[in-house]
């Protein structure tokens, strides 16, 4: 028998450099998208938390109105509410007799660099309903539906 001049072919396995680079590029793009979405979600959650905190003032405020409380009782301490939380410095405005009360409860936002010097406010209308109002520096995408 004569030795065969043909050598057996070895199958190569693995990935080429281009395939690996494509996978890394796709992972990088996905990571950038996820990071932006996550930051947006965190900001929406923080603004929603502020909205929930300011809403806690509605009932005590209305109770003081119904009881005929004096002007001096319309403060966070007069409403048995905290004057400050992690994200808010609260201020309360006494109600206007038979009129709307703008800035009835206001949160001066703090400890959030993207919302520095911004406010979230509850206004009390003539019909005793409440309206949420945000300062112009808060992106609509972060606001709860009631404040848009």
Describe this structure in words.
The chain has helices spanning 17-55, 58-66, and strands at 88-92, 101-109, 119-124, 130-134. The model has no long low-confidence stretch (mean pLDDT 90). It is rod-shaped. It is built from 2 helices and 4 strands, in the order H-H-E-E-E-E. Strand 3 and strand 4 form a beta hairpin. The protein has one domain: Glycoprotein, Type 4 Pilin (2-Layer Sandwich), CATH 3.30.700. Strands 1-2-3-4 form a 4-stranded antiparallel beta sheet, with helices on one face. It starts with 16 loop residues before the first helix and ends in a 14-residue tail after the last strand. It is an alpha+beta fold and 148 residues long.
Largest sheet: 4 strands, antiparallel
Q: Give the averaged pLDDT, no decimals.
A: 90
Indicate the overall shape: rod-shaped
Number of DSSP helices?
2
CATH architecture group name: 2-Layer Sandwich
Strand order within the widest beta sheet? 1-2-3-4
């Amino acid at each position: 028998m004569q030795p065969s001049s043909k050598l057996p072919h070895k199958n190569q396995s693995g990935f080429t450099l281009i395939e690996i680079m494509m996978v890394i590029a796709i992972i990088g793009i996905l990571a950038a998208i996820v990071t932006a979405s996550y930051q947006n979600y965190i900001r929406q959650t923080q603004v929603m938390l502020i909205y929930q905190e300011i809403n806690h003032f509605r009932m005590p405020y209305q109770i003081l109105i119904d009881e005929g409380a004096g002007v001096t009782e319309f403060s966070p301490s007069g409403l048995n509410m905290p004057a400050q939380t992690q994200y808010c410095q609260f201020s309360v405005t006494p109600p206007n007799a038979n009129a709307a009360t703008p800035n009835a409860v206001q949160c001066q936002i703090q400890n959030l660099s993207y919302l520095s010097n911004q406010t979230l406010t509850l206004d009390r209308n003539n019909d005793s309903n409440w309206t949420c109002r945000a300062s112009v520096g808060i992106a609509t995408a972060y606001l709860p539906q009631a404040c848009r």
